[in-house]
Design goal:
Length: about 180
């Protein structure tokens, strides 16, 4: 229930009081013959914050500096295909490494770095989200990253999971060749 002291439809709104400066500066100048005191308010020299922000926003607006073109923001299709193929090759090479290989941990670290970059770059591209290649690569990267995060960088991937990842990577590669 509302309190009777709150604003009700029958009450009349009162206008806001004008802004008062928060501080004043006093400049005193004295010489041997006369003393001059000047008092100025902060409002005289400093524009209001709201006015400044509106001016700065209108001047520095990205629409004025950089005209919006969707093609300029979106990654090119050739770049997507090239980087996706690199990610696919890195996934294949990493999961096919022998568990006794001394470079497994560094290969997994490079794969995680590459996959994080790829996902961060292409996940926000609306035009790529519906592609079969994106979906399959993303799923494979998720499975590989999840395994290595859970079991460590030197743990071998089980045969069933490895087969599924390689199948997803193969279908993604075929979809890339078809432009999907």
């Amino acid at each position: 229930m509302a309190s009777p002291t709150l604003l009700t439809p029958t009450s009349k709104p009162t206008p806001l009081s004008p802004l008062k400066p928060k501080f004043t500066t006093t400049i005193t100048s004295s010489s041997s013959t006369s003393t001059t005191t000047t008092t100025t308010s902060a409002a005289a020299f400093q524009p209001r914050r709201r006015e400044f922000l509106s001016l700065a926003t209108s001047i520095l607006s990205p629409a004025w500096l950089f005209p919006f073109t969707p093609a300029a923001l979106a990654a090119s299709d050739e770049e997507y295909v090239k980087e996706s193929e690199e990610v696919i090759n890195r996934v294949r090479n990493t999961i096919n490494m022998d568990k006794t290989d001394p470079n497994v941990a560094s290969a997994v670290a490079e794969l995680r770095e590459t996959s994080n970059y790829w996902v961060a770059k292409y996940r926000r591209e609306k035009s790529l989200l519906g592609r079969a290649s994106f979906r399959d690569i993303y799923s494979a990267l998720n499975a590989v990253s999840g395994h290595y995060i859970s079991f460590g960088p030197t743990a071998p991937i089980p045969a069933k999971r490895k087969a599924r990842i390689l199948e997803e990577v193969d279908t993604a590669e075929k979809a890339l060749l078809r432009g999907r």
